[in-house]
Amino acid sequence: MPNAKIIAAVDLHHRDWDACVVKEAIMLAQSHGAQIELVFVIPDQQNSYVQEYIPADMRDRVEIDARKDLEAYAAEFDWQGVPFTTEILRGVVYETLIERADQLPARFIVIGANKPKVKDLFIGPNAARVARYASCCVLVVRPE
Q1: Which of 10, 68, 73, 91 is the most exposed place for a label (fewest CB within 10 A)?
Q2: Considering only CA atoms, which of 135, 111, 134 is closest in space to residue 123?
Q3: Helix, strand, or coil here: 5?
Q4: Is there a cis peptide before residue 116, judged by omega within 30 degrees of 0?
Q5: Where residue 54 sits, what CATH number does that domain have?
Q6: Is the distance from CB of 13 to CB of 136 less than 8 angstroms?
């Protein structure tokens, strides 16, 4: 499947933790002859009272900065010849990842989950919702 797509969803606030997401996505892409889309979702609180008070130029600046950060993060990895792109998305994290996977369409979503605590009930809310509702395969990766 030469045109298979894999979404590697990372959180730029947890770069160290999510390095394992990128590494697993690279191995998965090699075994499936796939391309990777490295994705960071800027979390928007849709219909939030606060959103209307955030100036448009500030929202644009956040996206520009996130794009630079994601590209710098991508440059830290040895992609071992696997083709990849970077993508900044905005929205509710799990909904946005699922929608993007359907748009591509993606064969896999690789997403990280922190070491669980009893209160988290095994995996975080975004990873859990992606795993439950995505129409493609989902690989949930724990930090190394």
Answers
A1: 68
A2: 111
A3: strand
A4: no
A5: 3.40.50.620
A6: no
